[in-house]
Every structure is written in C-alpha cells, then in structure tokens.
Amino acid sequence: MQLRIDKYLADMGIGTRSEVKQYIRKKQVQVNGVYPKGPEQKIVPNQDSITFQGKAISYIEMEYFMLNKPAGCVSATTDAKHKTVLDYIDTKKRKDLFPVGRLDIDTEGLLLITNDGALAHELLSPKKHVAKTYYAKVEGCVTSEDVVQFEKGVDIGEERLTLPAELKILKVSPEDISEIELTIMEGKFHQVKRMFEAVGKKVVYLKRISMGNLILDENLQPGEYRKLTAEEIEKIQMKR
Ligand code: URA
C-alpha cells in the first residue's frame, strides 16, 4: 500500500491535512532521513521510516477498542448536546473511528469502536444473526411464560415477530424487580425494551455483555475502555 505523506500524518492525528502540509513545508517531517519533496510524495507505511519533529510516527491502519459505555452518552461520532462514546477513547490515533451499532443513551455495556467498516458491516448485517446478550433489571415478575414467549417470538409492532430469543431468569426479588439475561439475534430499535413491553413489563436497567464472540471485560468500569487483544480481533474477524 502506498500513501501520500500528508494523508499518512493526518491519519495518525498529527494535524489536519493543511496543518500537515505546513509541517512538511517547514521541514518538520522526514522520510527515511530526508525532507519530502512535497505533501504529495508517496510512502509505504511500516516500510519507510517517517518522523515528525524528530519523533518516529508509525502507521496504524485499523484500531479496535472495547468500551464499557456509561449511561448518559450517545452512540454517535458527534453530537451537539451530549458526550459521545468516542469522547471516552482518549488514546485513539485514527480520526475515522465509529461505534459498531447503537446502544440507547441510558444503556450501558459493551460497545466495539473501530474504523474497520467491513467488520462492522458483518456484525450488523441483519442476515448474519450475530448474537447479542444483555443483562437487565425489569419491573415486574418475569415468568417462565415469558421465557416461552420470547423463544416463540413476540410482536413488537414490526412486520414479523421477533426471532427466537433466549431469556434466562437470574433473580426475582420480593420488590418485583427481576434480573435477567436475554440473547437476541437481531438488533431492532429499542428491541429489548420493546420485547418486555410486549409482555407488559418495563426494563429499568440495561447493559450489553456480549456481541458475537466478544465479551465485555468485567474489569472495565462504565466509561472505561481498552484495546482489543490480538486474540479478540482474530476471534471477532472469524465471525465474518
Ligand atoms: N435494546 C434496547 O432496548 N436498547 C438498547 O440500547 C439495546 C438493545
């Protein structure tokens, strides 16, 4: 792969394309120890050695982060009113990161943040039926009838019933707050909340704990994130 030197540096967050052009003009950039002829000069990432103000700048093509999304932020790349999930990733290099799918503003838990568009497409494609597991607290007593109903599919006002979903009842407390785990194979808008509404119950807390074979790291507190390990990247790629 060949890249223009100005794009290389802009991709790595050194500055905007026009700032980077200035740096090149001001001789703050070197390619293999030589000042580039201009911003259009082509280089080969991770083969040519690039420095900015004397510091080596290596190229990262893809980034993969796991965020434990906190409540109160939106699953978007920009927002005029709210903090976005990207605002939490303060060690990001790439400027083209985005969240893979959406969690509601009040939902917590696993969100994959990457710039790997092909992977995102595979994980989100309705045809691929990627499993997503949620932990929820639900007002009302979740029953074995609900388990059967969710397995059969419920009417949430779409053209078809929901696909078979696996509901596990973890706890039913005397105050009638049930704790459950629900695995769904699709990702309709507000799906978990609407499925419980369909059986007369209200979700009062929702957290995603897995997506495909990617599992939320229990050590991450809401708002914390980490890079995916090489093993996790390989495993989630295999889902393609
Ligand atoms: N289902 C919901 O209702 N909300 C989410 O954020 C995710 C799944």
Q: How does this model look, in words?
A:
With 240 residues, the protein is of the alpha+beta class. The chain has three domains: 3-56, Structural Genomics Hypothetical 15.5 Kd Protein In mrcA-pckA Intergenic Region, Chain A; 64-126 and 214-236, 2-Layer Sandwich (Alpha-Beta Plaits); 132-211, Alpha-Beta Plaits, CATH 3.30.70.1560. Helices cover 21% and strands 27% of the residues. It has helices at 5-11, 17-25, 117-124, 144-152, 191-198, 230-238; strands at 3-4, 29-31, 42-43, 50-52, 55-56, 64-69, 98-99, 108-114, 132-139, 166-172, 177-184, 202-211, 214-215, 225-227. The strands form three sheets. Strands 6, 7, 8, 9, 10, 11, 12, 13 and 14 form a nine-stranded mixed sheet that branches. A three-stranded antiparallel sheet has the order 2-4-5. Strands 1-3 form a two-stranded antiparallel sheet. A hairpin with an 8-residue loop joins strand 7 (98-99) and strand 8. The longest helix is centred in the first third of the chain and has 9 residues, at 17-25. It is elongated, with a radius of gyration of 22 Å. The mean pLDDT is 95. Bound molecules: uracil.
